[in-house]
Write a structure and sequence with these properties.
This protein is an all-alpha fold. It has three helices and no strands. The termini are far apart.
């Protein structure tokens, strides 16, 4: 049973990573350097901490981008 749970957890983790990578592609950042991508994410994480207005603004941009392809 433990082995099956470990396998399921690994599959879930892998699926999540694939989906997150897809967001990078969708954002048009596929060919950017990894250090730049990480820097963007760290900076965004810092900027949205406790700033509900910024979170809402960025969520609206993302929702619009998803809306253009039916997701």
């Amino acid at each position: 049973m433990s082995k099956a749970m470990t396998s399921n957890a690994r599959k879930k983790d892998t699926r999540e990573k694939i989906e997150l990578g897809g967001l990078i592609v969708k954002a048009g950042l596929r060919y950017e350097k990894r250090a730049l991508l990480l820097g963007l994410l760290i900076d965004a994480g810092r900027r949205i901490k406790g700033d509900e207005t910024e979170k809402s603004r960025l969520a609206a941009i993302g929702a619009e981008a998803f809306g253009h392809d039916g997701e």
